[in-house]
Design goal:
By secondary structure, the chain is α/β, with parallel strands linked by helices. The protein has helices at 60-71, 86-89, 97-115, 119-123, 142-154, 170-179, 198-202, 222-230, 244-253, 263-266, 269-281, 295-305, 354-360; strands at residues 5-21, 24-38, 41-47, 129-131, 133-136, 159-163, 185-188, 212-213, 235-237, 258-261, 286-288, 328-329, 339-341, 351-352, 361-368. The chain has two domains: 2-117 and 351-363, 2-Layer Sandwich (Enolase-like, domain 1); 122-341, TIM Barrel (Alpha-Beta Barrel). It contains 13 helices and 15 strands. The strands form four sheets. It has a seven-stranded parallel sheet with strand order 5-6-7-8-9-10-11. The protein has a four-stranded antiparallel sheet with strand order 3-2-1-15, sandwiched between helices. Strands 4-13 form a two-stranded antiparallel sheet. Strand 5 (133-136), helix 5 (142-154) and strand 6 (159-163) form a beta-alpha-beta unit. Helix 5 packs across helix 6. The longest helix has 19 residues, at 97-115. Its cofactor is a divalent metal cation.
Length: 369
């Protein structure tokens, strides 16, 4: 597959509702889209870096710069046999995993199109449908939080995840659990707590949570292992798992019992599969996390979630939860049973709406020989 050109586009998409976490409030998403053009084929990737370097040390502006000046130049004009060959091409550039993932994932999409198979099949997927959970941001009041949960439970989502932070946790968990004693419930702290909060976090065992996601420092294994020894609820590792080596180290230390795989966070499909495999070897379940993606990133999360060890409902929810109008067709739909059908068409399985992308584009750069 000869890479003829790489087109970078920044689009700005307004969220249907603001999304509030311990990092702050997001009302609009600036998203870097990557289009890889090759011998008549058009393939797409999405960089999930945020507007600010809060979740990770990347942001959309660093991703744009590193893609334009370092990463894309290593790919344009080259013949690439497979998506899994891309990481070696970009290895000289340290870090910038979200920027790399957008390019690599586009090449996987391209490979699937050229071979005439679905992206899910190319990745090694075995599921016809995937189970869907939903992530609910912090609300101004517990009453509004309950209303949000009620909406998502009624929509059929199989797992409800609540964002939390110090001062907005136990009372909210208690209210939700009292109202819905049997739902699959988890929380996500996004590194908002410290080990000194261990006794407080241990008190959450009474709420029978599926997991507590990344409660401590974003780059830590050791203190998570100490915390896991003191609580019954499984810790789910997110930000600190950057690659398969991290996953192996964390699991051998006992830092957690579940791993959230975000394909952008680990640098692309190749490393995501490797993390999946390490967790599977340790008997640890994984699930696919979300980063407020447009339909392009959402479609690729669906394909990844079809792998066999993605045994817990992921944050791969319907397009309409986030966007009044997505940039793919058909839009991602979640059934009343809380499931998404994995596409079987060649490539990602969803067509990119070029008209919608053009309307949302705020800057564009075409890179070619």
């Amino acid at each position: 597959m000869k890479i003829d050109a790489i087109v970078m586009r920044e689009i700005k998409m307004p969220l249907v509702h603001p999304f509030v976490t311990s990092f702050g409030k997001t009302t609009d998403r600036r998203i870097l889209l990557i289009e890889v053009q090759s011998e008549g084929f058009s393939a797409w990737g999405e960089c999930v870096a945020g507007e600010h370097p809060y979740f990770s040390d990347e942001m959309i502006d660093t991703a744009w710069t590193i893609t334009e000046h370092e990463l894309a130049t290593r790919m344009i004009g080259k013949d690439i046999a497979a998506g899994r060959d891309v990481p070696a091409m970009l290895l000289q550039v340290r870090g910038h995993r979200m920027a790399k993932a957008a390019l690599e994932n586009a090449v996987w999409d391209l490979e699937a199109q050229v071979k005439g198979i679905s992206l899910a099949k190319l990745l090694g997927g075995t599921r016809d449908t995937i189970a869907c959970g939903v992530s609910i941001g912090m609300q101004p009041s517990i009453e509004q939080q309950l209303a949000k949960v009620e909406t998502e439970v009624a929509a059929g989502y199989q797992r409800i995840k609540l964002k939390c932070q110090p001062g907005y946790d136990s009372k909210m968990f208690a209210a939700v659990r009292e109202r819905w004693p049997d739902i699959l419930l988890s929380c996500d702290a996004n590194s908002a707590y410290q080990l000194s909060d261990a006794d407080h976090i241990a008190s959450w065992d009474e709420f029978k949570l599926l997991m507590i996601e990344q409660p401590l420092w974003y780059d830590d294994f050791y203190f998570h292992a100490q915390l896991q020894k003191r609580i019954n609820t499984p810790i789910c590792l997110d930000e600190c798992i950057r690659n398969a080596r991290d996953a192996q180290a964390a699991l051998e230390l006992g830092s957690g019992r579940i791993i959230n795989i975000k394909v952008g966070r680990v640098g692309g499909f190749t490393e995501a599969i490797a993390v999946h495999d390490v967790a599977r070897q340790h008997g640890v379940p994984v699930w696919c996390g979300g980063m407020l993606e447009s339909g392009i990133g959402r479609a690729q999360n669906i394909a990844l979630s079809s792998l066999p060890n993605f045994s817990l409902p992921g944050d791969v929810s319907a397009s309409k939860r986030y966007w009044s109008e997505d940039i793919i067709e058909p839009e991602v739909i979640v059934s009343s049973a809380g499931e998404i059908v994995v596409p079987t068409a060649a490539g990602r399985g969803y067509e990119v709406r070029q008209d919608r992308v053009d309307a949302l584009t705020v800057r564009q750069q075409r890179l070619s020989i």
